[in-house]
Amino acid sequence: MSEQTHNVVGGQAAVGHLVQAHEIGAVHIHEARTLVHHPSFELPPEKAHFVDRTEEQHRITAAAVPAGEGTRPRILAVSGLGGVGKTALCVRAGHQLADRYPDGAHYLDLDEYRREGVPDLAAVLTDLLSSLGVEREWLRRDFRGLVRQFWDRTRGKRLLLVVDNARTAAEVEPLLPASARSLVLTASHGPLYDLGPAAEELALAPLGPEHTADLLRLLLGDRHAAADPAAVEALAALCDGLPKAAEVAGGLARKHPHRSLAELADRLTADLHRRGSAPVEAVWDTALAELGPDAARLYHLLPECPGPFAVLPTAAALLGRDLLDTEDALAELRTAGLLDHHDGGYRQHALVRGHARRTGHTADPDGTGRAAARARLLHWLRRQCARADLLTAGPRATVQAELPPLPGVPDADLGPAKADALRWMEANRHALYGAVGLAHDSGRDEDAVALAESLWTHFLDHPRHADATDAFRTAVVAADRTGHLPARVRTRDLLARPLWEQGCFDEAAAAVEQACALATLLDDGHEHRRLAGSAIDFRGQFALARGEAAAARGEDEAAHRDFAAARADFTAARQIQQGIGNAYGAALQTYQLAKTATAAADPAAADLFAAARTEFAALPGRERMTARTSFGLARALRQLGRHEEAEPLLTEALTAATTRGSSYDEARIRTELAELADATGHPTTAARHRSRAAALRAEKG
């Protein structure tokens, strides 16, 4: 027979009688009291200010539906970065739902029960059973007995439990009521994998910029917020979606009421991003202290990774361990709430990244470990970028050699097709472009040059000019620092094109002229002559681009001079490439001459494009340039009014561009198809192509 004892909160009515209690192995007669139990509602007060989380509150409300038959309660596991507002959300939702749970609502902060990182769950159950009406003298003496007593006490009850600061499912499991009519909200830094499939996960992301600003206005008060709206937005950016950081800003405003918001922003920048803020970072310090050696070292190394996220192989390169060990370390960081996983990548919140960097400097004061990690990472990225470029563009002249595999870390799976390799580069572009700067800053100039070279084909298919200009400009500095003459030529040519495509003609002119001047210092070897011809080709491309810009402004005389200069350079470059037997280089110059003829409205353009197309088609692995010459030929034919010949060529080029995943080529081909549809009296088709082209430009930049 289970205990018949009940407790009273705020007052007890007692009736004395004897209760017979049966326990394992013996029968005991106890004299006890039957007490009338009034359910306890022990949730802490809500935060004074709360914004957004509407969708998350709806999900919690939807979970507050009895699970049906059985004894396992509904469980909703809220996880997220420390300071993101998990507790505030659970407490707010608990108050809103408390009326649905007439048998009580209870808040359990497991950190209050921790000793050396482990919660005393027996103490938790003791307090919880007391709140549920079990007097101290009737509590079981062992942990298993307390768990069973809790199951007995909660069977069939409608209870709400908020379990805060849970770290593992094992900490939560003994606290689950034995009732499908109950609801348990857990708050943890990382996902609680072992709670089972019945537990619904709710990953709480940082607030958006607008809601962060709304919260700041509430915390700062009307006077401060109204005085400088722009400063409120700046403060919101500093807080980066963490309500805890916003509370720190509000506290600074109250502590220093006479400071302007701009001054508070300076102080908050120092506190959050340079020195670190104890109120914000306390939970991260605790989580870091409890990490295993590999996870702690990886936490400190992840800020070295360029770009906003890391993938498993880049993390393995940083750590210097195999994929299995690295995956375990990443999982530990996720569980600790120090890392998020989205869309196949691992991301550190900006403020966590700052914390990791500062604590990493403390753990590795001379930077030896970080330098070794950067070297491994750059080795891996440089090799993968070169492999992807080779698969995408085919063999071409480079000034830096490909590296061997990084020991212990497998190469990236680039897929079986060129389009797959290009998509890999596009998916990892932030890391690849950022790695150029990382290599330069780390004194690894050859890596910077090699990465920039390999990014060239990606830039042609996905021309993001700001990224490319920064990376190629950095590569020029790195090449100059090495003193390697071919690298100094190549990097200036790489830089020139994004410059002239942005209208920076003076800087582009300086780059191509310097490249040609440096090329005259090269010897007569095959590869050096090939590079010299390439430098002249880039100077011709620049002249062509400048001539097109002059023609667009109606400056016909200047355009004529530039087109003539372009023809001269392309002709000279073609002779060099033919002289060394470089059929691809010679075909490329035919293609450039055809583009120049098109810009100059020369009827010879169609014949030149046709010749270039034939030359490229005869070369193995040059489908990309064959498709581009098909596009050029189609445009020339359309301008000549030969519409029927143009259409199949454009269709061929479009198929090649979409298969390759080149959004840039697809957009311009669709624009040309729209022009052709207009010319042939198909306005609906023209509108469809223009709409798709506009969508690609908006989506891909």
Number of strands: 11
Mean pLDDT: 88
The number of helical elements comes to 31
| Helical content (DSSP H or I, runs of 4+) | 55-70%
Approximately what portion of the residues adopt beta-strand conformation?
5-15%
The whole-angstrom Rg is: 34 Å
Question: Whole-Å distance between the termini?
Answer: 73 Å
Poorly predicted sequence stretches spanning 5 or more consecutive residues: 1-35
Record the strand order, biggest sheet.
4-7-8-3-9
The biggest beta sheet reads: 5 strands, parallel
Write the layout of secondary structure elements.
Layout lengths: L13 E10 L2 E10 L18 H10 L10 E6 L6 H12 L7 E5 L4 E2 L2 E2 L1 H11 L11 H12 L5 E7 L2 H4 L10 E6 L11 E4 L5 H12 L1 H6 L1 H11 L3 H13 L5 H15 L2 H12 L3 H9 L10 H8 L3 H13 L4 E3 L2 E3 L2 H14 L4 H26 L24 H10 L1 H13 L3 H10 L1 H6 L3 H18 L2 H17 L3 H15 L6 H27 L3 H24 L3 H17 L5 H13 L5 H17 L3 H18 L2 H17 L3 H18 L1
Parallel strand pairs: 3-8, 3-9, 4-7, 7-8
Antiparallel strand pairs: 1-2, 5-6, 10-11
